[in-house]
Design goal:
The complex is a heterotrimer of chains A (about 375), B (about 850) and C (about 260). Chain B is of the alpha+beta class and about 850 residues long. Chain B has 22 helices and 31 strands. Chain C has about 260 residues and is of the alpha+beta class. The chains are: A mainly alpha (about 375), B alpha+beta (about 850), C alpha+beta (about 260). Chains in contact: A-B, A-C, B-C. Bound molecules: ligand MGD (2 copies), iron/sulfur cluster (SF4) (5 copies) and molybdenum atom (MO).
C-alpha cells in the first residue's frame, strides 16, 4: 500500500532529500540525534502501514454493549508478561524445595535404613535448583540479567526475595549433594547443608505463591495462593519420589508426605475457587478456556491420585500409579493458575467488579 | 474551532472560564461542540436562513443597538425606487441580465448618489475598486431618514427582505427546532449592547458554499445591528487556514490583486496609469489615497526605471483578461490551453475538488513544477492515480514533464507568518535546510536572477519589464540565501532619495519619492527595526500584546475601533471602552491604536467640496467605505446581491423553501462532461447530504501529517461519519467498509457510526448527513481514497471558492471495484430537467470563452 | 516536595498534542497504524512506547449545565506516579526508583526485563518493550525537570487540561476547580486519586484527574490497590503453611521409621 521512504530519495539531477529514518521516530539522523529518554527503546520491526488490520470495535461508541461500563472492552491491566517456562519453574522449584525439606527431615529422624531416599532428595533438589535458574535466565534473556536480581535485597519484592532464596538454596543443596563424595573432613558438613537446604526449601516452594498474590491480577489476589503453592509443591515432590525405587520404610514416609500434600492442595484449591466465585468475572478463568480445562482436570487428577494412594494394598505399582497421576495433577495445577492469571488480567470487568464489590479490603495495611 | 485551531481555541476556553457562553453551530458534533454550552446542529448549507432569522428576530423584537445602527450604519440611507428585492422577484434582485447570467445596472445604489464609470454590478476586484464605484459626493442629508421609517430606507428594506426568515422557516430549512433557535437568539441579544459584546468565529464551514461570501455578510449585518463591530470582544472573525494564509491574501497569491488589495489592471479598461487611477481612486473615504499606494508600489518594483514620464512602468504590469482563478485555470489546462504550471506548497490532486479533472488538467500540461517536502500526490500523479489503477492511463502515455524541487520548512528559513488577527510574526532560521532543500524566497530570487541574465542583452521591448525589474537583495551563506529582512524593508517602504524606511503609510507619496511593497504593512520596519520579530509578552488592558509582532495596519488590533466610542467620542460604556476622544489633548486615544485620523474631532463634518481624507466626518468609523458607514445593505461590491439570500447548494435534496430560484443565479458552474452534476433537486440516486471537513490529527492534504508516523498513527485511515439511524438503514456496522458515490466518482472508506451525526428533521422529512474528512491520498505512510474525488467544480462567484461543504451523494456497504471506471454512466440531468429550476442558469466555462465575471480565487478562509 | 500532574478532563479538547509532544521529546516510535473504530482513539492504551494516551468517550447524555444533548469526554491518561507505586515496590532489581522530584522513574541501565512491575501496576500503565524486554513508562520528563523545564505534554497542552507543578498546590487548585464546576451545575465532577482518603489503595496519585463519570468509563480502576498491601497476609499464611509442612515432613519421616520393613 504505502511505501516507507528510503533513507535517501534519489532525484534525477542528483538532488537528495534526506527522509526521516523510517523506524517510526521521525528523526533524520543527518540533522538530529537519538538522545531522548525513549531513544534506547528498540522500535517494532517494519513501519509498513498495517492496512488498518487490527480488531475493530463493532458497536456504536455511545452504545455501551453491557451494563457495567468498560473502555470499549479493552483490558485495564497489562497481562503478566511471563511465558510458559515460568509456570514450569513454579513446578520445578516447588519440587526441588519440598524434596529438600523432606530429605532433611528424613536425614534427622529417618535413621540408617532411609539413607538412600535422603541422597535421592538431595539430587532432586540440586537438579531442580539448577533447572530453575536455567529457566529464569532463559526468561530474562541474558545470564548477567539474573545477577541484577541480586543487586539489591528488597523485602517488598517477592521476586527479589525469591531470587536470594533460590540462590542460597541451590548452593546449600549442591553442597549437601556433592560433599559426601569429597574428602572425609567435609563429609560431616553435608548434613548441615542438607538441613539448611531443607529449611530454605519451604520459602522456595512458598514464595512463587506470594509472588503472584502480589500483583494487580484479580484472580491472583487471594493470599491462599501461597498456601496452594506450598501444598502443590509437597504433593509434587511426593509424587515424584513415589516414582523412584524405595524400600518399605521410605515409601511409607513418601506416601504419607505426598498424600497429605495432595489433600492440602485440593482443600486450598477449592477454598480459592469458592472465594473467587463471589464475583462471576473473577471466577471465569476456573471454568472457561484452556485455563478452566487445566484447573478442572488438575482437581480430578488430584482426587484420583489420592484415592489410589488410600486404596488398600502396598504394591510398588500402586505407589508408582499414584505418583504418576499426582505429578500430572501438580503440573496441570501450575499451568492452570498461571494461565488463569493471564486471562483474568485481560478481562477489564474482572478488575472493575472485584474492586466495586470488595472495597479496599486491605486498605491501609503495611 | 477546537478541531482546526486548537491553539487559538485556548482563548475560547479562557473566555468560557470567565463566564462566556459558547455556542457551536455545525452539521456534526465535533470536538468544538464537546466544549460548547449550546450545540446547534443544522443541515449543511443553510446558515443564511438561520442568520437571516436572527436578523429578523433582532429587528422585530427591537433588540438592535439603535444609537449605533442609526449613526454608524447605512440603515437610514434611502434607496432608489427602482430597486426590487428577492421578495418581489422570487429569489432574484433587480438588474438581472438573463442572457449574460449576471446582475447589472444601478438599481442597488443609494438614491441620488452619482456613480462614475459604467453602471455595472461587475464585481470589483478589490476594496479599492468597490469604493471607487461608490464614489461621488457623500450621501446627502435629505437622502437619509434617521427615524428609520422611510419605506425605502435600508433599515426597512432589510426588514422586508428577511421578513419570511422566521423560526418556523429555520425549522423547515435548517432542521433547527424553534426552541433551539430562541435559545440562541436570547443568548445573542443578552450578550450585545452597550455593556456586552458577542463575537462570531467562522472559517470554511461558511466560505465553501456557492453563496459563501453572503454567509459572512449575513453575520456582518447581524453584528452591525447588535453594535458588535469595532468594539472589544465583538467582530466577525475569519479563522484563517495555513499558517500565513492571511499574509498570502494581503500580499496576494491571487490573480486579480496587487499587494494591499489594490486591483490588478484589466485589459481594455486600464490602458494607462491615468486611466487606472481614474477608475479606482475613490472620491471620498480612505481610498482617496489610492494613487500614493499604487505609485509607491511601482517604485518598489521597478526602482529608478519607474519615472513620472513612463507612468512609473505601469505598462509593464500584466493586464488580466478575465477569470484566471484556480478551477478555471484547471479546466483550461484540461482543454490543453496551458503549457506549464508551478505548484509551490500545494497538493491540488488531493486538495482541490474533482480530483479526476484536476489530474486530467495535469496530464495535459507540457511541464509541471512541484516544490514540496515530499513527493506528494500532485508530484506523483503521473505514476499512481485511480486512472492508473483502472488502466485508463499509464506513465508512458503521460507527456507532462515533472520537476520536483525539495522545499525547506519554516524552521529552516527566515520569514514571517501573518495570523488570523493580522499580526505578522517573524520566524528565524533555526537550522539550515538539508541537502538541496531551499526556501521559496531562494527559488523566486534566483529564478528572477537567471531570467534577468537570459534577457540581459535583448533589445526586444517586451523584455524590458524583466530588464527593469528592481531585483537587488543581499544574499548570505553558502546557499546564497536572499535576506528576508531586506524584502520586509521593501514591503515597509522607504523614501527613494535616502532609502530610509518610512514610519507608515501616512508618509507615502504619489510623486515617486517613496517606494512601498505593500502599504497596509507599512510601519512593520519603521526605524529600521523588524517589528514583526518583537516578542515582548508585556500585555495591555485587553491583553492584545502590542509589543508582540506587528498587527497591520499600524499595529491596530481591532479595525474600525472608532465605533467603540459614541458619535460624541465617548466610550459606549466603561466596561467596553477601547478608543475615545481625549478632550484635553484634542486627539483620539485608548487601549488600541485608534483606527481614525488622530486629530479629527468627533464633531468634524465633511463639506460638499471636501477632498481626500477630509471627506471623512468625525462620526464615520468605517473609513474605508466612501460613506464611512457600516453596510447593512451593500450598494456595490458583490455579484450576487446587496443582501444575503438563501439559495440551496448546487446539489440539494430539497427545493429552496423560500424562493422559486433554487441556487445562487450567479454561481460559477463548470458545466462539462468531466464535471458531472446530479439533478439540482432531490436526485433519487443521491439521497444524502455530504459535508467535508478536517481532523485535528491531520493537515489538509496530509503533506505535513501523513508522512509523520506520530500523526499518521492517530488517524491512520480514511473514514466517514454517519448516524446510527443511517447505518441501520444501510446495514452498516461501525468500522465496516463502505462506498460513497457522487456523479463524479465513488470512493471507499471506513464508517464511524456515531450519535455525533444526527439525522436532520425538516418538517416531516428526515435528511441524513455523511461527514467526511478529506486528508487522505495514495502516497505517504497512511493512505486512503481522497474525498475530493467526489466533489464538483463549482464556486461562489465573489471568491471562486469551491462548494465543498454541502453536496449530495449515496453510500453502500462494501469496497469499491478498483478496476471499474468511476460512475461514468451518471450523465447530466436530461434536458427537460433544467439544472436550475425554475430559472435555468448555464454559464459554460472552459475552452475559449472565459467570460465568467472575473473574480478572485481567495484562500478558502 | 513532589511534582505531578493535575489533569482536568473537562477542558480537554482531545487534540492529542500531549501524546505527540511526549513521543517527540522522548523519541518514541509510533505503535503502527490501526483503525479501531473507538471514536477518535486509534492508539487505545498506554504502553511501552505510548506514555501519554488520550481516550475518547461518547455518551448519549449531556453533561449537567451544558445544552449539547450529548457529550464527548476526552481524557489524557498517563502514569500516575503513585504515592505507593506497585511497579516500584515489586521491582526486584531496584531499577524503579523515586526521584528527587517525587516521580517514579525506571533506570533503563538497571532494568533486567523481569516484567514483575507490569503485573504490579494496578493501572496497567508500565509495559515491557517486546524487543529487549525492558520496561518503559512516563518519566515525568525527568530530563526536562533536571533542566528546570515543565514536561513536554503539559507544555504542549493548549487548554491547560494538563497542569504540572507541586502536587500539594495542584490539589488545592483542583479542589477549587471542582467547587466552581459544582457551582456551574456540573455536579458529577470529582477528583480521582486526589488524596489517600479517596484512594487508600495507592495513598493518592501524584498525577491525579478531574473526572465527570465513573472511572471505569475512562478505563481507570475504581478502587486500585498497590499489591504490596497483600504481601503481609500472603507471607503470613505461607509461614503458617510452611510450619505445617515442616511438621508433616518430620511426621512422615517418623512414620516411615516406625514402619515395619
Ligand atoms: N488540525 C488542522 N488544523 C487546520 C487545518 C487542518 O487541515 N488540520 N487546516 C487549516 C486550514 S487550511 C483552514 S482553511 C482551517 C479551516 O478550519 P475549519 O473551517 O474549522 O475547518 P473544517 O473542518 O473544514 O470546517 C469546519 C466545520 O464546518 C462544518 N460545516 C460544514 N458545512 C457547514 C455548514 O453549511 N454550516 C456550518 N455552520 N458549518 C458547516 C464542518 O462540519 C466542520 O466541523 O483550518 C486550518 N487549521
Ligand atoms: N473537500 C474539501 N476540500 C478542501 C477543503 C475542505 O474543507 N473540503 N479545504 C480547502 C482548503 S481551506 C485549503 S487551504 C486547501 C488546502 O489544500 P492544499 O493547499 O493543496 O494542501 P496542503 O496540504 O495545505 O498543501 C500544502 C503543501 O505544502 C507543503 N509545504 C508546507 N510548507 C511548505 C513550504 O514552506 N514550502 C513549500 N514549497 N511547501 C511547503 C506541504 O508538505 C503540503 O504538501 O484544501 C481545500 N480543499
Ligand atoms: S498548527 Fe500551528 S497554527 Fe495550527 S493550531 Fe497549531 S499552532 Fe496554531
Ligand atoms: S501508575 Fe503504575 S506505573 Fe505508574 S507509578 Fe503507579 S504503579 Fe507505577
Ligand atoms: S522489568 Fe525492569 S523495571 Fe520492571 S520490575 Fe523488572 S527490573 Fe524492575
Ligand atoms: S511527563 Fe514527559 S514522559 Fe511523561 S507523559 Fe508527559 S511528556 Fe511523556
Ligand atoms: S494536549 Fe491537552 S487538550 Fe490536547 S488532548 Fe492533551 S490534554 Fe487534551
Ligand atoms: Mo484553508
Amino acid at each position: 500500500m504505502s511505501e516507507s521512504l528510503p533513507g535517501f530519495l534519489q532525484i534525477p539531477g542528483g538532488a537528495q532529500i534526506p527522509a526521516a529514518n523510517d523506524d517510526g521516530r521521525n528523526v533524520d539522523l543527518q540533522t538530529g540525534a537519538l538522545s531522548g529518554e525513549g531513544a534506547g527503546q528498540k522500535p517494532p520491526g517494519s513501519r509498513q502501514d498495517v492496512g488498518l488490520q487490527s480488531q475493530i470495535f463493532p458497536h456504536v461508541p455511545s452504545h455501551q454493549p453491557c451494563e457495567t461500563p468498560t473502555y470499549y472492552g479493552t483490558p485495564v491491566l497489562k497481562q503478566p508478561v511471563w511465558h510458559w517456562p515460568i509456570a514450569a519453574y513454579f513446578y520445578v522449584g516447588g519440587v526441588a524445595g519440598m524434596s529438600a525439606t523432606l530429605g532433611s527431615a528424613t536425614q534427622l529422624f529417618g535413621g540408617r535404613e532411609m539413607r538412600s531416599v535422603v541422597i535421592k532428595t538431595r539430587w532432586i533438589a540440586t537438579t531442580g535448583a539448577l533447572v530453575s535458574t536455567g529457566i529464569l535466565v532463559q526468561d530474562l534473556g541474558r545470564p548477567e540479567r539474573f545477577l541484577n536480581m541480586l543487586r539489591v535485597f528488597k523485602l517488598t519484592s517477592p521476586m527479589s526475595m525469591g531470587s536470594w532464596i533460590l540462590s542460597a538454596f541451590s548452593s546449600a543443596a549442591a553442597a549437601a549433594t556433592v560433599l559426601p563424595y569429597g574428602p572425609r573432613v567435609f563429609r560431616s558438613l553435608a548434613g548441615i547443608f542438607g538441613a539448611i537446604a531443607g529449611l530454605l526449601g519451604l520459602p522456595l516452594a512458598a514464595y512463587t505463591g506470594v509472588l503472584i498474590v502480589q500483583t494487580a491480577v484479580p484472580v491472583w489476589k487471594n493470599p491462599l495462593w501461597s498456601v496452594l503453592a506450598l501444598c502443590s509443591s509437597t504433593a509434587a515432590a511426593g509424587s515424584l519420589l513415589e516414582l523412584l525405587p524405595l524400600n518399605a520404610k521410605e515409601s511409607r514416609t513418601v506416601e504419607v508426605f505426598s498424600l497429605a500434600g495432595k489433600i492440602g492442595e485440593i482443600v486450598t484449591a477449592n477454598a480459592i475457587e469458592k472465594d473467587a466465585a463471589r464475583i462471576d468475572r473473577v471466577a471465569r478463568p476456573f471454568h472457561r478456556g484452556f485455563s478452566g480445562l487445566l484447573w478442572q482436570s488438575a482437581k480430578v487428577l488430584l482426587v484420583s491420585s489420592a484415592v489410589i494412594a488410600i486404596a488398600p494394598g502396598r504394591s510398588p505399582k500402586k505407589r508408582i500409579a499414584a505418583g504418576l497421576v499426582g505429578t500430572a495433577a501438580s503440573v496441570c495445577m501450575r499451568f492452570a493458575y498461571f494461565l488463569a492469571g493471564k486471562r483474568s488480567a485481560r478481562d477489564p470487568r474482572a478488575t472493575f467488579e472485584q474492586q466495586r464489590q470488595t472495597p479496599a479490603i486491605t486498605a491501609g495495611q503495611i | 474551532m477546537a478541531e482546526a485551531h486548537p491553539v487559538g481555541f485556548q482563548w475560547v476556553m479562557e473566555a468560557k472560564r470567565r463566564g462566556a457562553t459558547v455556542i457551536h453551530v455545525d452539521p456534526r458534533f465535533s470536538r468544538t461542540s464537546a466544549m460548547a454550552d449550546l450545540f446547534v446542529p443544522l443541515r449543511a448549507g443553510t446558515d443564511i436562513v438561520f442568520l437571516g432569522a436572527l436578523i429578523s428576530y433582532v429587528i422585530e423584537n427591537e433588540r438592535y443597538f439603535r444609537d449605533y445602527v442609526v449613526s454608524y450604519t447605512n440603515a437610514p440611507v434611502i434607496l432608489r425606487d427602482d430597486y426590487r428585492d428577492t421578495e418581489d422577484l422570487d429569489g432574484l434582485f433587480s438588474g438581472w441580465q438573463e442572457e449574460k447570467g449576471q446582475y447589472e445596472g444601478p438599481t442597488w445604489r443609494y438614491e441620488s448618489t452619482e456613480h462614475k464609470g459604467e453602471d455595472s454590478q461587475q464585481t470589483p476586484e478589490s476594496h479599492a475598486e468597490r469604493s471607487a464605484q461608490m464614489a461621488g459626493p457623500k450621501v446627502k442629508a435629505h437622502d437619509t431618514d434617521f427615524t428609520l421609517q422611510h419605506p425605502r430606507c435600508v433599515f426597512q428594506v432589510l426588514k422586508r427582505h428577511f421578513a419570511r426568515y422566521t423560526p418556523q422557516m429555520v425549522e423547515e430549512a435548517c432542521g433547527i427546532s424553534q426552541e433551539q433557535f430562541h435559545k440562541v437568539a436570547k443568548h445573542l441579544c443578552h450578550n450585545s449592547g452597550r455593556e456586552r459584546t458577542t463575537a462570531f468565529c467562522y472559517a470554511v464551514g461558511w466560505t465553501q458554499h456557492s453563496a459563501g461570501a453572503q454567509f459572512i455578510r449575513a453575520a456582518a449585518i447581524l453584528q452591525l445591528l447588535l453594535g458588535n463591530i469595532g468594539r472589544p470582544g465583538g467582530g466577525v472573525m475569519a479563522l484563517r487556514g495555513h499558517a500565513t494564509i492571511q499574509g498570502s491574501t494581503d500580499i496576494p497569491t491571487l490573480f486579480n490583486l496587487l499587494p494591499g488589495y489594490l486591483p490588478m489592471p484589466k485589459a481594455g479598461t486600464d490602458k494607462s496609469l491615468a486611466e487606472y487611477l481614474e477608475n479606482y481612486t475613490a472620491r471620498s473615504g480612505w481610498w482617496t489615497e489610492f494613487p500614493k499606494y499604487m505609485i509607491s508600489l511601482l517604485k518598489a518594483w521597478f526602482g529608478d526605471a519607474a519615472t513620472q514620464n513612463n507612468d512609473y512602468c505601469f505598462d509593464y504590469l500584466p493586464k488580466i483578461t478575465g477569470d484566471h482563478s484556480h478551477m478555471t485555470t484547471v479546466v483550461n489546462m484540461a482543454d490543453g490551453d496551458l503549457d506549464g504550471y508551478l505548484v509551490m506548497g500545494q497538493n491540488p490532486v488531493v486538495g482541490s475538488p474533482n480530483a479526476g479533472l484536476q489530474r486530467k488538467g495535469l496530464r495535459n500540461l507540457k511541464w509541471l513544477v512541484v516544490r514540496d517536502f515530499y513527493l506528494v500526490e500532485t508530484a506523483e500523479f503521473w505514476k499512481d492515480s485511480p486512472e492508473h489503477e483502472r488502466g485508463e492511463v499509464s506513465a508512458e502515455t503521460i507527456g507532462t514533464e515533472v520537476f520536483f524541487f525539495p522545499a525547506s520548512t519554516h524552521v529552516e528559513k527566515d520569514g514571517s507568518f501573518t495570523q488570523t488577527q493580522r499580526v505578522a510574526q517573524w520566524h528565524h532560521e533555526a537550522i539550515a535546510p538539508p541537502a538541496d532543500c531551499r526556501s521559496e524566497l531562494h527559488f523566486a530570487y534566483h529564478l528572477g536572477k537567471r531570467l534577468k541574465e537570459l534577457y540581459a542583452n535583448s533589445s526586444d521591448p517586451k523584455d524590458r519589464p524583466i530588464q527593469d525589474l528592481a531585483w537587488e537583495y543581499p544574499v548570505h551563506d553558502a546557499r546564497d540565501e536572499p535576506s528576508a529582512e531586506a524584502v520586509l524593508a521593501e514591503v515597509n517602504g522607504y523614501t527613494v532619495a535616502d532609502r530610509k524606511p518610512v514610519d507608515g503609510y501616512l508618509k507615502l507619496k504619489d510623486d515617486g519619492s517613496t517606494a512601498c511593497g505593500c502599504w497596509i504593512y507599512s510601519g512593520i520596519y519603521a526605524g529600521g527595526v523588524n517589528h514583526a520579530a518583537k516578542k515582548n509578552r508585556a500585555t495591555d488592558h485587553y491583553g492584545y500584546g502590542p509589543e508582540w509582532g506587528f498587527a497591520w495596519p499600524s499595529n491596530r488590533h481591532i479595525l474600525y475601533n472608532r465605533a467603540a466610542a459614541d458619535p460624541q467620542g465617548r466610550p459606549w460604556s466603561e466596561r467596553k471602552a477601547l478608543v475615545w476622544w481625549d478632550e484635553v489633548k484634542k486627539e483620539w486615544t485608548g487601549y488600541d491604536t485608534p483606527d481614525f485620523m488622530k486629530t479629527v474631532p468627533p464633531d468634524y463634518r465633511a463639506a460638499e467640496d471636501s477632498q481626500g481624507t477630509q471627506t471623512i466626518s468625525g462620526d464615520d468609523p468605517f473609513i474605508l467605505h466612501p460613506d464611512g458607514k457600516g453596510w447593512l445593505f451593500a450598494p456595490a461590491g458583490l455579484q450576487d446581491g446587496p443582501m444575503p439570500t438563501h439559495y440551496e447548494p448546487f446539489e440539494s435534496p430539497v427545493h429552496n423553501p423560500l424562493y422559486g430560484q433554487q441556487c445562487n443565479p450567479v454561481r460559477l458552474e463548470y458545466d462539462r462532461s468531466d464535471n458531472q452534476m446530479a439533478k439540482p433537486i432531490a436526485d433519487p440516486r443521491f439521497p444524502y447530504v455530504i459535508t467535508t471537513y478536517r481532523l485535528t490529527e491531520h493537515h489538509t492534504t496530509g503533506g505535513m501529517s501523513r508522512w509523520l508516523s506520530w500523526l499518521a498513527e492517530l488517524q491512520p485511515g480514511m473514514f466517514c461519519e454517519i448516524s446510527p439511524e443511517l447505518a441501520r438503514e444501510k446495514q452498516l456496522r461501525n468500522g465496516d467498509w463502505a462506498v460513497v458515490s457522487t456523479p463524479r466518482a465513488e470512493i471507499e472508506t471506513r464508517v464511524l457510526v456515531t450519535e455525533r451525526m444526527r439525522p436532520i428533521k425538516l418538517g416531516r422529512r428526515t435528511v441524513h448527513q455523511i461527514g467526511m474528512p478529506y486528508h487522505w491520498g495514495n502516497r505517504g505512510l497512511v493512505t486512503g481514497d481522497s474525498t475530493n474525488e467526489l466533489l464538483a467544480f463549482g464556486a461562489d462567484p465573489n471568491s471562486t471558492i469551491q462548494e465543498s461543504k454541502a453536496l449530495i451523494g449515496d453510500i453502500r456497504p462494501g469496497r469499491r471495484d478498483h478496476s471499474k471506471a468511476i460512475t461514468k454512466e451518471a450523465t447530466n440531468a436530461p434536458e427537460e430537467e433544467l439544472r436550475d429550476l425554475p430559472i435555468a442558469r448555464h454559464r459554460p466555462i472552459g475552452k475559449h470563452h472565459v467570460h465568467a465575471p472575473s473574480s478572485k480565487q481567495g484562500d478558502q478562509t | 516536595m513532589a511534582n505531578g500532574f493535575f489533569t482536568d478532563t473537562t477542558v480537554c479538547i482531545g487534540c492529542k498534542a500531549c501524546e505527540v509532544a511526549c513521543k517527540q521529546w522522548n523519541q518514541l516510535p509510533d505503535d503502527g497504524y490501526h483503525f479501531t473504530g473507538m471514536s477518535f482513539d486509534n492508539t487505545m492504551h498506554l504502553g511501552a512506547s505510548t506514555w501519554r494516551h488520550v481516550s475518547f468517550i461518547e455518551r448519549p447524555v449531556a453533561l449537567n449545565g451544558s445544552d449539547t444533548g450529548f457529550s464527548w469526554l476526552m481524557a489524557s491518561d498517563v502514569c500516575k506516579h503513585c504515592a505507593r507505586a506497585g511497579c516500584l515496590e515489586n521491582c526486584p532489581t531496584g531499577a524503579i526508583m523515586r526521584t528527587e522530584f517525587g516521580s517514579v522513574y525506571v533506570q533503563q541501565d538497571v532494568c533486567n526485563g523481569c516484567g514483575y512491575c507490569v503485573s504490579g501496576c494496578p493501572f496497567g500503565v508500565i509495559d515491557r518493550n517486546h524487543d529487549d524486554g525492558r520496561a518503559w513508562k512516563c518519566t515525568l520528563c525527568y530530563d526536562r525537570q533536571k533542566d528546570g523545564l515543565e514536561p513536554a505534554c503539559a507544555k504542549a497542552c493548549p487548554t491547560d487540561s494538563i497542569q504540572f507543578g507541586d502536587v500539594e498546590e495542584l490539589k488545592e487548585r483542583a479542589r477549587k476547580r471542582v467547587e466552581t464546576l459544582h457551582e456551574k451545575g456540573v455536579k458529577e465532577a470529582y477528583l480521582y486519586g486526589g488524596d489517600a482518603a479517596s484512594q487508600p489503595g495507592t495513598g493518592g496519585l501524584n498525577a491525579f484527574f478531574l473526572l465527570v463519570d465513573k472511572p471505569e468509563v475512562y478505563n481507570l480502576p475504581p478502587d486500585p490497590e498497590v499489591p504490596t498491601m497483600r504481601a503481609n497476609q500472603s507471607w503470613k499464611s505461607a509461614g503458617l503453611a510452611a510450619i505445617g509442612v515442616a511438621a508433616l515432613a518430620l511426621v512422615s519421616a517418623l512414620v516411615g521409621r516406625t514402619a515395619r520393613g
